Structure formats: structure tokens, C-alpha cells
């Protein structure tokens, strides 16, 4: 059960010292740009930028390597699946066909298809570092404060901070229950048959869920006693005030978003077509 | 609800999303078909939607799925996140009708719960997920429809079995309104 989750990594760097709200705005602008564009030039520039920011943040590759392996494996599978299901997708999008190698039927390899799949892969490489950086450089309790600052109601922000706060607790509880069930001889590993495994999993799920429902009761009573939700506003212990650097970063990132959209949609299409 | 989020709903969203993440991460059983797992987290989502209502259901799906994607893969697959929100929200819309707090969850409720969850999930996985995949990610249509259908079928079956059992177990912990008897 050595599956890890990403979490905050304490370092001293310019990226860490930005306010959480700034990083959230940049992250949102960044992902919307990456999601909307299919323009190879924009994607390449964004990739270079994100690698540069990654270097500034002083986060080491080995800190997050377990996620990287997973992403690479996922990308490979996804690319193979796209090719198997639709080997002519690129030809359809770019409207021309340059065959490199002929294989049976429609499964020939065209430059257009390779280019289309390169773009899909690039898109992934552009979004991922931004999300990774946001997660490992923003403290969970500051995250809630920054959500509140960009306009999410503080009750919802508080719910999200509760989630982040209780993930480790519930994970611990899950382990305890799983181990005590294993001590009673219940096998969760792949040695069991599928149906037996589903049944065995439910011997863990039921106590976990019912005890979580109790937990909801206890926590909401405690919050009620302290008068949570009485006022329209709430202050956050870990909120960071905006500094000059924050304003500069926000303005630059929004300008970049607009620029990327202008370049992408300049020719009336979200794909960049080098074959015309 | 009187138009505002009650404290209990907020806590249910927070802790519910945490449980959703743990279940999605640790209690997903591979079926043998590549990339397809039996997701016990959706059974839990259905339970929370029925117990705490549409707002809690939708937000548990949304927050849970977003954070799980972000924390374990480093990027969020928005089209499917939206499907989780949709499923939690629309199963939750029927919470008053199923009225699990009354402690009664018999044959009639089991049948209507399963019809609701099957219809909602069918719309979500067979229709919404593939269409959003095409709109946002421009992926090939036949690939995303096959993915959606496989995921949808496995989730409908999982929620049908584990979700129903969870709801029965939960309803037994509620005291029925006519459980007091005059001596």
C-alpha cells in the first residue's frame, strides 16, 4: 500500500513566497490557455516557460518522480489507444495526408497523425508542471484562504480545507481497518478471485464509511458550538497579503493568456496547420 | 436548507470528499480489462448524495474528483470531473423522495434508487463524458465513447450492488419514526 499522494514541500524560493491566491490565478489562467489551444507554437513556448518556472521553484525532480512515471505511462497508453481507435484523426483535422509507412487498411502512419498526437502529448506536458507546482508550493491551509480571496464563498473554501485536513486521518483509519481485517484472514490482494475481492473490499469500506459519518457528526457539532457561519466574512490565519511581486505575476500571466488566445484563434481555428 | 449551506452540509462535503479520494485511490479493484477498475468511490458518492442532498453530492463529486486527479496524477481531467459533479448532484435531487432518514429503505426504495442511479450515470458516462472529451480535448470520437460506455457500465453495476448495500446499512442506523411503542 505504498501509494503516495502529492503534498506540500517546504523550500525557500520565489515561487513559494508568492501568495496562494496569485498561484491559483496563474494556475487557472495557465490551464485554460493549455486547454483551449491546440497551437503547437503556443504549446512549445508554454512548455519552455513552465520548465523555467520549475527550475526557479527549487523543487527537485525526485520529489515528484513517482507521479511523473505514472503520467508517462498514462500518456503512452492514451497515445496507443488514440492510434488504435482513430489512426486517421490527424488527416481529418489537418485536411491533408502524407503517408510515411503503409500498414494494413487505414492503419498507415501519416505525418498528420504523428503531429496531432505530438500536440496531445505536448498539451499534457504543459498542464502538468503547473498543477504539480501549484500543489507542492502552496500550503493546504493557505489554499483555502486563497480560494476565498478569488471569490469562492468561505463556506465552500472551508469545506475544501477540511478535505485536505482529513485526507491523512482517513488514510490512517483506512490502513488500520485494512490491517485488522487482514489479521482476520481477509485477503485484499490479487490472489483472490474478482468477486471474492469485491466482497472483501466491502468489509473495509463499510466500517470506514460509517465511522466517517460519525466523524461528520462530531466535527459539525464542534463547529456549531464555535459559531461557524454566523458572520458574512471570515479571516484566515494563514492568508498572505499581496505584495508587489504578486501583482506583477498576475498581470503578466493574464497578458500571456490573452496573447496565447489571440495567436491560437488568429486563423479562426484552434489547430496550427503547418501542412497548408 | 433555507437557502444557505448548513454546517452539517459543509462538513459532509469536506469529509465526504476526503473519503471519496481515499476510496478512489486505495479501494479501486482492477477488473482485468485495461484502464477499467471497479470504483467503489461512486457507491459512496451515491450514498452521500442520498443522505445529504444535491449540493453535498455535487460538491463531493467535484472536489473529490478534482483533488484526487491533482494529488495523484498532477493534472485534472476536467470532462470527467464534471461528470462526477453531475452524478452527485442529480442523484442528490431525489433525496427527499428516497427519504433515508426515516429509517425505511425497503424494496420500493431500492428499486427507485437503482433506476435513478442507472439513468443518471448512463447520461453522465455514455453522453456527457465523451462529448466533453471531444469538446475540450479533441480526442477521437469512437475512443471516448468506448471508454465512457465501459466506465459507465462498471460504475452502474458497482453503485447498484455496493451502493444499495451501503444505503441499507445506513438506514438501519436511523431510528424509524414509529419505533416508540406505548407500554
UniProtKB/TrEMBL annotation, chain A:
<protein>
    <submittedName>
        <fullName>Energy-coupling factor transporter transmembrane protein EcfT</fullName>
    </submittedName>
</protein>
<feature type="transmembrane region" description="Helical">
    <location>
        <begin position="20"/>
        <end position="38"/>
    </location>
</feature>
<feature type="transmembrane region" description="Helical">
    <location>
        <begin position="247"/>
        <end position="266"/>
    </location>
</feature>
<keyword id="KW-0812">Transmembrane</keyword>
<dbReference type="Pfam" id="PF02361">
    <property type="entry name" value="CbiQ"/>
</dbReference>
<dbReference type="GO" id="GO:0005886">
    <property type="term" value="C:plasma membrane"/>
</dbReference>
<feature type="transmembrane region" description="Helical">
    <location>
        <begin position="43"/>
        <end position="61"/>
    </location>
</feature>
<keyword id="KW-1133">Transmembrane helix</keyword>
<feature type="transmembrane region" description="Helical">
    <location>
        <begin position="67"/>
        <end position="85"/>
    </location>
</feature>
<dbReference type="InterPro" id="IPR003339">
    <property type="entry name" value="ABC/ECF_trnsptr_transmembrane"/>
</dbReference>
<keyword id="KW-0472">Membrane</keyword>
UniProtKB/TrEMBL annotation, chain B:
<feature type="transmembrane region" description="Helical">
    <location>
        <begin position="40"/>
        <end position="64"/>
    </location>
</feature>
<keyword id="KW-1133">Transmembrane helix</keyword>
<keyword id="KW-1003">Cell membrane</keyword>
<dbReference type="GO" id="GO:0005886">
    <property type="term" value="C:plasma membrane"/>
</dbReference>
<dbReference type="InterPro" id="IPR009825">
    <property type="entry name" value="ECF_substrate-spec-like"/>
</dbReference>
<feature type="transmembrane region" description="Helical">
    <location>
        <begin position="144"/>
        <end position="170"/>
    </location>
</feature>
<feature type="transmembrane region" description="Helical">
    <location>
        <begin position="6"/>
        <end position="28"/>
    </location>
</feature>
<feature type="transmembrane region" description="Helical">
    <location>
        <begin position="76"/>
        <end position="95"/>
    </location>
</feature>
<comment type="similarity">
    <text>Belongs to the UPF0397 family.</text>
</comment>
<dbReference type="InterPro" id="IPR022914">
    <property type="entry name" value="UPF0397"/>
</dbReference>
<protein>
    <recommendedName>
        <fullName>UPF0397 protein D8M04_08675</fullName>
    </recommendedName>
</protein>
<keyword id="KW-0812">Transmembrane</keyword>
<feature type="transmembrane region" description="Helical">
    <location>
        <begin position="115"/>
        <end position="138"/>
    </location>
</feature>
<keyword id="KW-0472">Membrane</keyword>
<dbReference type="Pfam" id="PF07155">
    <property type="entry name" value="ECF-ribofla_trS"/>
</dbReference>
Amino acid at each position: 500500500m505504498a501509494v503516495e499522494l502529492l503534498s506540500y514541500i517546504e523550500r525557500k524560493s520565489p515561487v513559494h513566497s508568492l501568495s496562494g491566491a496569485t498561484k491559483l490565478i496563474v494556475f487557472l489562467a495557465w490551464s485554460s490557455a493549455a486547454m483551449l489551444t491546440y497551437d503547437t507554437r503556443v504549446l512549445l513556448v508554454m512548455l519552455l516557460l513552465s520548465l523555467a518556472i520549475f527550475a526557479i521553484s527549487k523543487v527537485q525532480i525526485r520529489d515528484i518522480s513517482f507521479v511523473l512515471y505514472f503520467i508517462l505511462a498514462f500518456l503512452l497508453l492514451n497515445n496507443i489507444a488514440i492510434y488504435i481507435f482513430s489512426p486517421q484523426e490527424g488527416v481529418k483535422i489537418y485536411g491533408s495526408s502524407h503517408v510515411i509507412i503503409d500498414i494494413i487498411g487505414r492503419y498507415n502512419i501519416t505525418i498528420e497523425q504523428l503531429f496531432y498526437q505530438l500536440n496531445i502529448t505536448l498539451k499534457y506536458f504543459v498542464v502538468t508542471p503547473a498543477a504539480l507546482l501549484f500543489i507542492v508550493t502552496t500550503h493546504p491551509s493557505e489554499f483555502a484562504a486563497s480560494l476565498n480571496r478569488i471569490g469562492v464563498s468561505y463556506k465552500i473554501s472551508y469545506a475544501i480545507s477540511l478535505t485536505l485536513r482529513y485526507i491523512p486521518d482517513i488514510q490512517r483509519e483506512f490502513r488500520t481497518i485494512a490491517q485488522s481485517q487482514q489479521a482476520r484472514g481477509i485477503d485484499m490482494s490479487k490472489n483472490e478471485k474478482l468477486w471474492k475481492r469485491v466482497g472483501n473490499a466491502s468489509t473495509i469500506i463499510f466500517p470506514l464509511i460509517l465511522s466517517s459519518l460519525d466523524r461528520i457528526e462530531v466535527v459539525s457539532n464542534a463547529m456549531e458550538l464555535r459559531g461557524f457561519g454566523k458572520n458574512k466574512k471570515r479571516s484566515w490565519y494563514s492568508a498572505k497579503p499581496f505584495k508587489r511581486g504578486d501583482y506583477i505575476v498576475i498581470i503578466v500571466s493574464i497578458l500571456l493568456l490573452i496573447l496565447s488566445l489571440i495567436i491560437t484563434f488568429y486563423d479562426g481555428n484552434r489547430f496550427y496547420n503547418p501542412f497548408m | 436548507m433555507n437557502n444557505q449551506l448548513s454546517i452539517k452540509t459543509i462538513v459532509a462535503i469536506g469529509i465526504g470528499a476526503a473519503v471519496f479520494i481515499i476510496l478512489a485511490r486505495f479501494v479501486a479493484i482492477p477488473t482485468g480489462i485495461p484502464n477499467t477498475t471497479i470504483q467503489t468511490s461512486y457507491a459512496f458518492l451515491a450514498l452521500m448524495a442520498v443522505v445529504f442532498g444535491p449540493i453535498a453530492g455535487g460538491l463531493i463529486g467535484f472536489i473529490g474528483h478534482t483533488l484526487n486527479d491533482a494529488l495523484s496524477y498532477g493534472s485534472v481531467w476536467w470532462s470527467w470531473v464534471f461528470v462526477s459533479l453531475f452524478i452527485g448532484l442529480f442523484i442528490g435531487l431525489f433525496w427527499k423522495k428516497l427519504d433515508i432518514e426515516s429509517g425505511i429503505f425497503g424494496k420500493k426504495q431500492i428499486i427507485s434508487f437503482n433506476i435513478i442511479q442507472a439513468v443518471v450515470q448512463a447520461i453522465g458516462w455514455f453522453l456527457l463524458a465523451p462529448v466533453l472529451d471531444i469538446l475540450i480535448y479533441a480526442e477521437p470520437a469512437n475512443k471516448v465513447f468506448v471508454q465512457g460506455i465501459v466506465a459507465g457500465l462498471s460504475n452502474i453495476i458497482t453503485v447498484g450492488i455496493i451502493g444499495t448495500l451501503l444505503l441499507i446499512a445506513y438506514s438501519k442506523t436511523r431510528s424509524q419514526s414509529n419505533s416508540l411503542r406505548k407500554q
